[in-house]
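Quick one, T. Sequence first:
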Amino acid sequence: MNATRRRILEHLVQAVERVYGLDLVKAKVASRFSLYVHLAWLEEAGFVEGEEERVTLRRSYKITDKGRAVLFPEARTR
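Structure tokens:
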């Protein structure tokens, strides 16, 4: 996994609520030009879950258990 995708997961694992792509850009996790490519890859791989919100028409993201396992592999062995 590349460094940008890992940074995205690290940011999402610390989030209390679902996170919007713009929040990740503002936190300088990734550039707005590459962020959505990385989020799509992470979602396709099952590391994050995206959800389209009807009211705002924005997509929010949260980390999945599979994504946590990538960041904390030692937790899987217990």
